[in-house]
Write a sequence for this structure.
């Protein structure tokens, strides 16, 4: 980070005292959303530079990359990403135009459409995964302080136990 930029850790954090209106679980969730949103902002530029796709299109690619074989139905992608189907249809069309995904009808279901990565997309993701992972690793400590870790452990107590064992 350039010396002229203020380090996010030097900025005042979100108020986290327990005296507000929100219950602990909702307050914890909001802290985590703020931290992940900040990391996502840093990741957007790297995604655009390395893959030349939008962040939302990148999320689709990541979902498809985690499928051992074949692809996913578009309705399932929309569910997993919490996106309206119409918006997803546009994103898939952009990815298809870029040669990164294929679409095909699901056998036995006229309305079903399955989306899968192309070899080009697999190659690009493989090449970009190092810089993308490094961006996340560098950004997380800037935005994920003790309050956010405590919030995460409060929401997922088993994670706190595993962390203590390691």
């Amino acid at each position: 980070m350039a010396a002229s930029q203020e380090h996010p850790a030097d900025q005042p954090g979100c108020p986290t005292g327990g005296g507000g209106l929100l219950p602990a679980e909702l307050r914890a969730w909001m802290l985590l959303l703020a931290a992940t949103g900040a990391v996502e902002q840093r990741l957007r530029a790297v995604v655009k530079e390395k893959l030349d796709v939008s962040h939302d299109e990148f999320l689709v690619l990541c979902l498809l990359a985690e499928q051992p074989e074949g692809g996913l139905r578009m309705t399932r992608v929309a569910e997993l990403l919490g996106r309206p189907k119409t918006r997803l249809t546009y994103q898939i069309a952009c990815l298809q135009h870029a040669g990164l995904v294929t679409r095909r009808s699901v056998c036995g279901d006229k309305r079903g459409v399955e989306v899968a990565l192309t070899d080009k997309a697999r190659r690009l993701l493989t090449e970009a995964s190092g810089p993308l992972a490094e961006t996340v690793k560098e950004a997380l400590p800037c935005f994920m302080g003790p309050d956010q870790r405590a919030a995460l452990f409060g929401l997922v107590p088993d994670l706190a136990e595993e962390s203590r064992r390691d």
Observations:
- Residues 153 and 160 are 5 Å apart (CA to CA).
- Confidence is low (pLDDT under 50) at residues 1-7.
- The first strand starts at residue 72 and ends at 73.
